[in-house]
Specification:
This protein is α/β, with parallel strands linked by helices. The chain is about 45% helix and about 15% strand.
């Protein structure tokens, strides 16, 4: 029988107890080769196994009582969500899990991954690491002393329950404005995932710890930013009104090098479609959305370090070129003029 009828003579009510349904949880590692794993989960077998080894202690239940979900299947469910942005019910059907289980898995896995962000997203602070990045930008773009590129990108979310209006971005939808810094290899070296979509890029930069750190250092190099950012000795922006051929050559090289952050955002979002506009807004609660975004940044760096391929889908231009009240610092002007004189 599919169910049993239990009679309760004390109140004449009838309750129905359904037999427990055990779902088929076929393991992806037993089914797919590397190409299929990358297509479905965006990571090859060895990367997924490393991820399982790293997260198992935090994800694995203390016992397998009540048919608990193994850590490996939790990771696969989370990866499938990150990779597709599909509804949790769809993820559950694919993984042999219930929708509430998928929701808990996404929340827990994202929290654990985001807590490891500092291990995977590192700004070059040592002379050796800085030299490697500088040499990369210099040889490829003829931009000396460059430590990375900075920009903001909008990631759509569902309307939050608090301060809903602050999250409406300039494009008219609810979003988080994420500040990212990348190196010459398209690896994220710094991210900030906390500001509502209406926040100006320059304001986020001005309140960042990275800006404080660079400002407290002697000149060790600079980032490249667009005209939404202030010109500083540690942050090079293009000339607003180039007059000479050298000025125009500098702007062209600056633009080409700064494209690296746009390329990085494109690869990050295309790999993890839950944060791409084609995947729709993140439908999880705001704290979990922050963890999901951070987690995908961690996974992006792992994939880039391992050379995992990705098909880039163009999302559109998120560049914020507003220049109202942007500072033109004298020391920044001097360094920019020296670069133009010596290189262009």
């Amino acid at each position: 029988m599919a169910f049993q009828i239990m009679f309760q003579p004390s109140n004449n009510r009838v309750s129905i107890r359904k037999d427990r349904v055990f779902r088929d949880r076929s393991h992806p590692l037993d089914i797919y080769d590397d190409a299929e794993l990358i297509r479905r989960y965006r990571m090859p077998r060895h990367c997924i196994l490393d991820l399982i080894d790293t997260l198992s202690t935090d994800l694995e239940p203390p016992t397998m009582r009540s048919y608990s979900i193994p850590a490996s299947l939790q990771i696969f469910a989370a990866l499938r969500y990150y990779a597709t942005g599909s509804f949790q019910q769809v993820i559950g059907d694919i993984s042999g899990l219930s929708q509430p289980s998928v929701s808990r898995i996404i929340q827990k896995t994202s929290k654990i991954l985001s807590q490891r962000a500092n291990d995977c997203i590192k700004f070059p602070t040592t002379p050796a690491a800085q030299l490697a990045v500088k040499q990369g930008f210099s040889s490829e773009f003829n931009m000396p002393n460059t430590l990375g590129c900075v920009d903001g990108t909008l990631i759509a979310i569902k309307p939050p329950t608090e301060r809903e209006d602050a999250y409406v971005c300039r494009k008219g939808y609810h979003a988080i404005n994420v500040q990212g810094v990348c190196d010459n290899r398209k690896i994220l070296t710094n991210i900030i995932v906390q500001w509502p979509g209406s926040t100006h890029d320059a304001y986020i930069w001005g309140n960042s710890r990275l800006r404080e750190w660079l400002e407290g250092q002697p000149y060790i190099g600079h980032l490249l930013g667009d005209q939404a950012y202030p010109l500083k000795q540690y942050l090079m922006t293009p000339l607003r009104n180039p007059h000479t051929q050298a000025d125009r050559a500098f702007n062209a090289a600056h633009k080409k090098a700064r494209q690296r952050i746009e390329d990085t955002f494109g690869r990050w979002k295309s790999r993890w479609m839950c944060i791409h506009k084609y995947g729709g807004p993140l439908t999880v609660a705001l704290p979990t959305a922050v963890d999901v975004i951070t987690s995908t940044a961690v996974l992006h760096n792992i994939c880039e370090e391992q050379g995992v391929p990705v098909e880039v889908l163009q999302e559109g231009d998120d560049i914020d070129d507003r220049v109202d009240n942007v500072v033109q610092d004298q020391s920044g002007q001097q360094i920019r003029a020296m670069i133009i004189r010596d290189r262009f």
